Each structure stands twice: as C-alpha cells, then as structure tokens.
C-alpha cells in the first residue's frame, strides 16, 4: 500500500498545485503523510454527507474538487460545519485533499471530463492562456433543443435540470463547455464564435446581454445552464480512472471510488403554472 505522501505526489503531477489561481486553496487539508492509503474516494464537495460516506466506505483519502476552506480559517472547532468535517475525518484517519482550479486548467481537466460526459469531440481550449473551458465540434449539426436534451440525458440528474436561453430550433455545429461557474467567460465564448455555451451558474444580466447582442452581431448564441455539481462531477470519474492507472503502474494495492451522492445544494424546483414551454 502506498503512503499518503506518495499518492499526493501522484495527484500533484496530474494537477500541479502551482497552476491553481492565486485566490484558490488547493492541496492537503488534513492527513498524515506517512499513513498508508488503501482506499480513495473522489467527490465534488467536502460536505458532511461526503465525509460520512468516506468514513462508511473505510476510505483513507477523500479527494474533492471544491476547497473546504477557500478563504482560510482560524478555527477548526467542531461547532462549525466545516470544523465538524475536519474532526470527523481526522477521528477516522481520513485525509482530505483538494484539486480545484489546478484541475480546471489541467490536461485533461474538468472541462475535458464534461465534454467526455456529453460525448463531444474537443478541438481546443476556450481560453488558451490558462487552458480553461473547451471548444467542441458536433459530429452532426443538432438543434439547441437536442443539445439540451443530450445534456439532460448524459449529465447526472439534479433538481435544477437544464435551463436554456435561445431559440430551441437554432442549429449548432460548434459549442463551448466549461465545468463550474462559466459566467466570466462570455468574452472568450464570443471570440471563439461558437453556436452555444454550456456551463453553470449563469446569471440574468450576462445571459440577457448575450442574447440581446446576439441578434445584432455574430449570430445567435444558445446558452445551456446545468447544475454546478453536475458539470463538475464527471471530473471525479476521470480523476478516479487516472489514479487507477497510476496505481496499476506502481503496483499499488489501491481501491478508487467515486461518490454518486448528489451534493448540488438545490433540492427541488417547481415549474410555474402557465410558464412558457
Ligand atoms: Zn466548482
């Protein structure tokens, strides 16, 4: 069985921590570098349900995409839910390691996993400077409605489902995808000249402006908004496969798991009576 330090070194080679954004908090949150690791669980969010799952599974290492303490902390007291997670993990000898924006900008990264889940062919990065997002070519042109149906079918189910802005009959040939909040990438999407953009956490004004501008400039842009968790979860499967392969290469006795627990914070939604479509 490998030591935690060996597994972390392998993960750092996949997602070099120095490639994380300066505001980010990636790396090992808790764990003994000398402890043996036999079981690893991958998940998107370091929340209590996931900590409980890691403990029940007998995992020695939990790897999450989102940081536990993005803004730092001066306390890990168990009276706060984050401190509770730290306490429970340490009590059960579970290490926690985070790969966030260093996994976004990696090759393959979070958006490659998203494109793979959607069965899209990647032709390049959306933002070449930091390797964020991916531009994809559709094998056959499809409508925005068909593309949204593809996302609904292929991404893990959430209460939010898929929200779409644009003409459902619009024909798509090239699309951009970005796992997680893609709100800040509209300029890159425009510059890429794609027909649609699939991401998460899109807000009223950027969407409104993008669809307004679209009618007067390059052509209409379809916008597909999936749940943040659903756009990043495919990375867990990709990451688990990558670690499995490393484990095989090293002859490690490592079991690698992916959490299927939906930790998207939205619990349910109602469609208003008389809503359009
Ligand atoms: Zn995220």
TrEMBL record:
A Pfam family of this chain: DUF34_NIF3
SUPFAM superfamilies: NIF3 (NGG1p interacting factor 3)-like
Keywords: Hydrolase, Metal-binding
Binding site for a divalent metal cation: 65-66, 104, 228, 232
GO cellular component, one term: cytoplasm
GO MF terms held by the record: hydrolase activity; metal ion binding
Family label: Belongs to the GTP cyclohydrolase I type 2/NIF3 family.
UniProt xrefs under PANTHER family: GTP CYCLOHYDROLASE 1 TYPE 2 HOMOLOG, NGG1 INTERACTING FACTOR 3
Subunit organization: Homohexamer.
The protein's name: GTP cyclohydrolase 1 type 2 homolog
Protein's organism: Streptomyces gardneri
């Amino acid at each position: 069985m490998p030591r935690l330090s060996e597994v972390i070194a392998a993960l750092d080679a996949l997602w070099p921590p120095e490639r994380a954004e300066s505001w980010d908090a990636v790396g090992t949150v808790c764990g003994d570098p000398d402890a043996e690791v036999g079981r690893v669980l991958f998940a998107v969010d370091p929340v209590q349900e996931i900590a409980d799952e890691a403990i029940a599974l007998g995992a020695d290492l939990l790897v999450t995409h989102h940081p536990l303490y993005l803004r730092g902390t001066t306390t890990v007291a168990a009276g706060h839910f984050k401190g509770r997670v730290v306490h429970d993990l340490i009590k059960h000898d579970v290490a926690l390691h985070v790969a966030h924006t260093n996994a976004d900008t990696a090759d393959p990264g979070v958006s490659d996993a998203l494109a793979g889940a959607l069965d899209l062919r990647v032709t390049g990065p959306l933002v070449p400077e930091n390797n964020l997002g991916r531009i994809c070519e559709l094998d056959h042109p499809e409508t925005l409605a068909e593309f949204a149906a593809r996302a609904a079918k292929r991404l893990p189910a959430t209460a939010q489902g898929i929200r779409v802005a644009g003409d459902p009959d619009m024909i798509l040939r090239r699309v951009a995808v970005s796992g997680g909040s893609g709100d800040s990438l509209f300029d890159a999407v425009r510059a890429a000249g794609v027909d649609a953009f699939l991401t998460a956490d899109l807000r009223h004004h950027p969407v409104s402006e993008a669809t307004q501008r679209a009618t007067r400039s390059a052509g209409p842009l379809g916008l597909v908004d999936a749940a943040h968790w659903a756009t990043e979860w495919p990375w867990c499967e990709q990451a688990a496969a990558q670690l499995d392969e490393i484990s095989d290469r090293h002859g490690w006795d490592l079991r690698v798991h992916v959490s299927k627990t939906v930790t998207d914070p939205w619990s349910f939604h109602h469609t208003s009576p008389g809503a359009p479509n």
